[in-house]
Amino acid sequence: HKHHKRSQEAMAHQSLIIRCLLSVLLVVHHIGTAHAFASASLSSRRTDQTMAVYSSTSSNNLSNADDSAADTNDKPILGYWKIRGLAAGICYQLAYCGVDFDMEYYVQGDGPEFSRADWMDIKADTGLEFPNLPYFRDGPTSLTESGSIHRYIAKKWCPDLLCLDDAAAYGKVEMVWGVVNDLRYFVGMECYTGDGDKPALAERVLPRMETLAKWMKERLFAGGDELSFADFSLIELVEIVDFVTEGEIYVAYPHLKEYRNRIFNLPGVKQYCESEPKLPFNNKVAKIGNSV
User: Fold this and answer.
1) In what order do the strands lie in the sheet with 135-138?
2) pTM for the whole thing?
3) pLDDT tens digits, residue range 204-217?
4) Longest C-alpha distance within the chain, in Å?
5) 86, 146 in Cβ contact below 8 A?
């Protein structure tokens, strides 16, 4: 009987221990659940905060992009003397590319001084890395040297004008560019520093055009069948030689007249030439081509 009583007491004790253990486990479960819920809530809050920061950053980036786009809405500026000179070909190219731009003209003084103060007085303060005329400003980009300006305009607005897809065509275009600029330099120097004898200059110029004219006889454009940036310099050479020779260039090389018509009937170029005021080829100090 005593043994049976002890057994009942032991069983009751074990039952109590089991109930205590179950209670502890239940408390631990509730604590774990609460912790998990809190962690999830914290994670959710962190995610919300992160998304808010991302949203704010994205909005700022979009705002900056809009500001940048607004900055680039300013029209490019081409600066040069109030003559055709090296700027005319750049203007033709900009017009062909459909670029709306502004001109900043500088005016040479009358003789006998022929002052260049209009440009020289501000030259050092232009912020240009290599101050010179012509210059071209397009947003944060500022350039001098006509060759770099022609190529920049082509690269940005009409990449096909660089003929970069064909190595041979690219090489030919660059070759003609060099030949054209050598001839333009010769004619220009004769106009500025020569004796002012226009007929005599015409006699010297026409033979120098022979090789280039022969090259152009077999081609639509400077580099071949495709228009390039070199054409906008070549056409201005043809124009000034036409002026110096009083049309004899087209008698000697009639196909250059066809070339001229081809260029000046290009979309954009035609409209530009019809609307812009006529300017002299050279500045006031030149002995030839200093007036319209």
Assistant:
1) 102-106, 77-81, 135-138, 141-144
2) 0.76
3) 999 999 999 999 99
4) 151
5) yes
